[in-house]
Amino acid sequence: MTSTDLARAVVTALVEAGVTELVVAPGSRNAPLSFAAYDAAEAGLVRLHTRIDERSAGFLALGLTKVGARAAVVCTSGTAVANLHPALLEAVHSAVPLVAVTADRPERLRGTSANQTTEQVGVFGWLVPVVDLADGGPPPVVGDGPLHLNVQLDEPLVPTDRWHPEARVVDRPERVRPIPENLELGPRTVVVAGDDAGPGARVLAEQAGWPLLAEPSSGARNGANVVRCYRLLLDGELGQQVERVVVAGHPTLSRPVTRLLSRADVEVVDLTAGGLPRPFAVARELAGARVEGSDPPAWLDRWHEADRSLARQLDALLAAEPALTPYAVAGAVSRAVPAGGLLVLGASSPVRDLDLMATGYPVGERRKVVANRGLSGIDGTVSAAIGAALGRPQGPRNLALMGDVTFLHDSNGLVLGPEEPRPDLTIVVVNDDGGSIFSMLEQGAPEHAHAFERLFGTPHGVDLASLCAATRTPHWRVDGLAELEHALANPNGGIEVVEAMVGRKDRRSLDERIRGLTP
Q1: How distant, in Å, are the alpha carbons of 108, 214, 224, 267, 284 from that of 184?
Q2: What is the rounded distance in angstroms from the CA atom of residue 197 to the CA atom of residue 217?
Q3: Do 272 and 339 belong together in one domain?
């Protein structure tokens, strides 16, 4: 079997496993895989994307897969492989079936200091299963990922003919849905819906009459039981009265939620049975839950009354601020997402700001809100947002919200070749010239002011307009809420950046005033 034959077998296995998107980073050793991907795209079996940066390529594939379009990323050997590690780690911790296909030198060259040769088998650690494929070996088997296919390719590395693959129908077993177990009523219960919890958390809360504390990317922040200002209420009187928490998904945003789940006097029922171990004690694991009847409405009514009071105070406090605040930006972005639209959230402050500002969307309007909450990193967010937008071509509007440091961390995600698929995507960058989230943490306390800017604030002074101009990305800078709302209401089409200028000198004070609100 030649390298060309092996590469075509790999691409065939990917297609048969349901992969519809192939992201390729250029290289010599992966040339057989690249040619096979190109021919498969020409045959209409996959859509091809090329990126010059492997880290961006990995997160592009991650974003595509997070919205349901199965993707694989292909790269050459050596350090190129290591650049896929952040995306693979995020995929593992958010249970996204991303496939990494890495070209390798033949086994005889391992350990010989041959050019661009290192030990690639197991490079992603024990969390990512790896299959090492060689000439004449068995065909690759691609199941649910994340998965690493390491492909040994020997010369010659270019084909002598064109490949004309045909579509093959492969029966895939339907996913077996677990039978929900009965959950008794009675204890004062709240439902915590973390990242990717799904609509079941919302349904359970409404059936039982329990408050729903749902993160923006939970897929459950809709319906009548949503509590907008839950994290301000959890450390108060209401939060102290919670006796039981039903948790779904991966909650990561809020220290008050972490404290609640860690309390010895609170029973935790976990609806993500069989997932990764939890950092808190779990009393019961259920594959799904249902209730017979509902609790008296007094408990839920108290949460809603307190939530309405806090929301009014919060909105009044922010409206009185003389300058544009990150919270106002997050609220405007949340309101701009239409029914059926997509919103991609960056890590750090923006996702938390939106968590406090976003009201529950109506049920059935199918807005998709996603974030990389597996490890909550800022890596690859621009690329992941582009991938998610490309993976939902039927949506009426795609938006992304991220901070300036997050944007800069993956600004080369805007580097797309002239033949690359481009989505309509509005990227809103909250620019406070540095890392404002640290000002709200222990590092931002006055006693650490002497070192804060150098170590944590990290002002960069980058001219984002010029940076966008380098990639011919339309850019719009706004300084006020009305101007921001106007920009959001008038997208240019294609990928564009709206830069919202905010300050961070008083961010710690603003958050202290917000936390001081009482219902």
Answers
A1: 62, 21, 21, 13, 13
A2: 8
A3: no
Spatial distance between the Cα atoms of 266 and 251, rounded to a whole number of angstroms: 16
Report the SS3 class of residue 174. Answer: coil
Whether the full predicted model's pTM is greater than 0.85, yes or no, is: yes
Distance from C-alpha of 229 to C-alpha of 356, rounded to nearest angstrom:
6
Residue 5 CB partners (closer than 8 Å, separation 6+) = none
Strand partners, 212: 191, 226
Range of the domain at 372: 321-515
Which residue in this structure is represented by tokens 């804060």? 452
Q: How many domains does the chain have?
A: 3
In a shared domain, residues 327 and 453: yes
pLDDT tens column, 321-366: 999 999 999 999 999 999 999 999 999 999 999 999 999 899 999 8
Is the link from the previous residue into 459 a cis peptide, with omega within 30 of 0? no
Q: Establish how many alpha carbons lie within 13 A of residue 318's alpha carbon, considering only the half-sphere containing its beta carbon.
A: 23
CA 301 vs CA 225, 293, 295, 304, 341: distances in Å = 10, 17, 11, 5, 31
H helical segments located in 364-430:
381-390, 404-409
* C-alpha–C-alpha distance, residues 510 and 328, integer Å: 12
